[in-house]
Amino acid sequence: LVSAQDAYAVCSAAAYRRGEGKALHMLALARVVTEQFEEGIRTAEEALAIFRELGLRKLEANELLTMAHYFLGRRMGREAVPYAEDALELYKEADSDDFGWTCSAYDCLTDAYIAKGDAQKATRTAEEAVEYFERKQDKRSLAMALNSLSAVYCAKRQSEDAV
Questions:
Q1: Dihedral pair phi/psi, residue 41, rounded to 5°
Q2: pTM of the predicted model as reported, rounded to 2 decimal places
Q3: CB of 110 within 8 A of CB of 81?
């Protein structure tokens, strides 16, 4: 926590906005893991605002995905969904040949819908991911998308379909 605060102070004094955003990202993480959840979310929102201000789309997407995971860690699917949705859209715009982040965002969004109790949207999201990675011919991401789809079927207690 202290190191992240120090990094933020140094970057702020130097008017290095990108560094401020990254330091705020780490400060948010430190706050979330030390049970200062609400303050951590506010800090992550500050980092997100800086990344948006600077037009750093990949860092914006990373922050959104991280925030979605913060909420998922607390089983707060409803709160995680909009962050995961926004991250997914940004990653789909940014990923050219490496679809790892897009895959992670699809997985997070599927998990958010499961946590929210919306099995129908979870299913649609996982199926969309499978179709997306089939079109992109990305076998690794396709395997992960199929795994997400299997998790949805398990959550819906449709173990036959999961296999």
A1: -65, -45
A2: 0.91
A3: no
